[in-house]
Design a protein that fits this description.
Layout (H helix, E strand, L loop, with lengths): L2 H11 L3 H8 L6 H26 L10 H11 L15 E7 L6 H8 L4 E6 L28 E6 L2 E7 L1 H8 L1
Parallel strand pairs: 1-2
Antiparallel strand pairs: 1-3, 3-4
Length: 176
């Protein structure tokens, strides 16, 4: 608003021009106002974090029915890798267990868990591992040529596939 407009407005409302200008000046922020703004911001960030955790990443599960299921999931995730990393692990000798997490056989899993060497798990249900699903290829030289079905266990020694076992019954018999 220009100076002339302010003067006219003050004259119409019956106020002095100087009083009208002083009323328009900003008041300094008080401690109460600052604390209120900080509390509102903290609540908004907490709400955003909770909503993202519940709906987007699904890391927060409030309505879980089975607590044992959570423990099993964290145990299986510990050695989970992508199929493309099957031959790139640090150990000299280890096993790689290819399985479908939506249709996992508990008997095969218990046989694989009982192995002495480290067992890495590859979830074939994961889209990143889709290129490796197909007719079982057996022992191959390159990881790019590897094709597996659900379930399959390979033994790796010195970054080379030493043995290849595919199928539930074969795994149960050969790894016992």
């Amino acid at each position: 608003m220009g100076r002339e407009l302010r003067r006219k407005e003050a004259k119409r409302s019956g106020k002095n021009v100087k009083e009208a200008i002083e009323l328009n000046k900003e008041k300094p922020m008080t401690a109460k106002g600052l604390i209120t703004i900080l509390i509102v911001l903290i609540v908004l960030f907490a709400l955003t974090y909770l909503l993202a955790g519940i709906f987007a990443t699904k890391d927060i599960k409030w309505f879980s029915k089975n607590t044992n299921e959570e423990e099993e999931t964290t145990n299986n995730i510990r050695n989970r890798i992508l199929a493309s990393e099957s031959l790139k692990q640090l150990e000299e000798n280890y096993y790689v267990y290819y399985y479908d997490s939506t249709n996992e056989d508990t008997e095969v899993t218990s046989v694989v868990d009982a192995l002495d060497d480290t067992v890495y798990r590859v979830d074939l249900h994961d889209d990143f591992n889709a290129n490796f699903i197909g007719e079982p290829s057996g022992v191959v030289e390159s990881i790019d040529d590897l094709k597996v079905s659900d379930p399959t266990v390979i033994k790796v020694s010195s970054e080379k596939i030493v043995s290849f076992t595919s199928g539930k019954e074969e795994i149960k018999e050969s790894l016992k």
